[in-house]
Specification:
176 residues; Arc Repressor Mutant, subunit A; 3-stranded antiparallel beta sheet; alpha+beta; 2 domains
């Protein structure tokens, strides 16, 4: 199993994006059970205190990433080039879309109380949200939702991993 784990590790090392289990199986030539066992071996290896990386499960795939405990130390010198700064308005818009998706622009505006065109465009340009369909009402407005890049950016395996909202916070995201 060590050789299989080393092969999976090499595949993950050369990929900067999460790799789906199916792709790991295809590229490695290993069956899904062998891939799962290899990932367990790697997870145990990286869980040790002497490892600076971890196996992250993001958006239905896996990738190697810096352990969360070291990110604050490293982001000052290495994170700035990859770290995008978001305005409060962009974060608020992104939060509304993430927690309320699929949602239309006018629904975002109703929750925020201000126009959201430029924020939605900014978030689309950063590939954090995308059009996911059209609402079945007159005018058929576009609905927005998060992208796989959103999951990667926030290191989430799925949208269900978003922090749970308190009752007060949840009420803020409701349309009146």
């Amino acid at each position: 199993m060590e050789k299989e784990a080393a092969l999976i590790e090499a595949i993950l090392y050369v990929n900067t994006d999460p790799v789906e289990y199916r792709a790991l199986s295809r590229v490695s030539g290993l069956g899904k059970d062998a891939v799962a066992k290899a990932l367990e071996v790697l997870e145990a290896k990286y869980a040790r205190e002497d490892s600076g990386v971890e196996l992250s499960r993001i958006g239905g795939g896996v990738m190697l990433s810096i352990k969360r405990e070291f990110w604050d130390t490293l982001k000052e010198s290495h994170g700035k080039k990859n770290e995008s700064r978001f305005s409060k308005a962009a974060l608020e818009t992104l939060s509304i879309i993430a927690y309320s998706q699929p949602i239309t622009r006018s629904e975002v505006e109703a929750i925020r109380g201000v126009q959201a065109d430029s924020m939605i465009q900014t978030l689309m340009d950063k590939d954090l949200i995308r059009k996911v369909g059209k609402k079945d009402i007159p005018g058929r407005p576009a609905q927005y939702g998060t992208t796989p890049n959103f999951l990667k950016f926030f290191r989430l395996e799925s949208i269900a991993d978003l922090p749970k909202l308190t009752e007060t916070e949840a009420e803020r995201f409701e349309l009146e």
